[in-house]
Design goal:
133 residues, alpha+beta, Archaeosine Trna-guanine Transglycosylase, Chain: A, domain 4, six-stranded mixed beta sheet, 4 helices, globular
């Protein structure tokens, strides 16, 4: 299955149902199930954000859920209104920033994060039981 490493707090926002768009500088032809991996980096966190998540701590370096990658759309087309009928919420969504917007649906948060090393770009995820072989 394909996987995508996403920095925190964005991986958490996705699996917690608040972020339905992942922004990338590149498109992909891939559509389908996508493992959401929370990266190890803390560079996207502001100083007080760790405190904001103290009741539901952020995970780092772990698979935290999955989603279905439904579409990959260019920001210019979104702003022009080309997808208003299909995704009426997209243009106004707080996380629609582009330049390429990866539309996520059927998001599932895992009850227990799975420690796992991520990678750049889209990468192939092997479940832990298979990875040990």
């Amino acid at each position: 299955m394909k996987a995508l490493t996403i920095c925190q707090p964005y991986a958490a926002l996705i699996v917690r149902g608040h972020k339905w768009v992942e922004n990338r500088t590149w498109p992909t032809a891939y559509r389908g199930q996508l493992i959401i991996h929370a990266g190890k980096s803390r560079e996207w966190l502001s100083g007080d954000e760790d405190q904001a998540y103290r009741d539901d701590p952020l995970e780092f370096g772990a698979v935290v859920g999955e989603a279905r990658l439904a579409d990959v759309l260019h920001m210019g087309h979104i702003q022009r209104g080309d997808y208003d009928a299909k995704y009426p919420w997209l243009k106004a969504h707080a996380h629609t920033e582009g330049p390429w917007c990866w539309v996520l649906q059927d998001i599932v948060r895992y009850a227990q994060p799975v420690p796992y090393k991520g990678a750049q770009g889209l990468w192939n995820f092997q479940p832990v039981a298979q990875a040990v072989q």
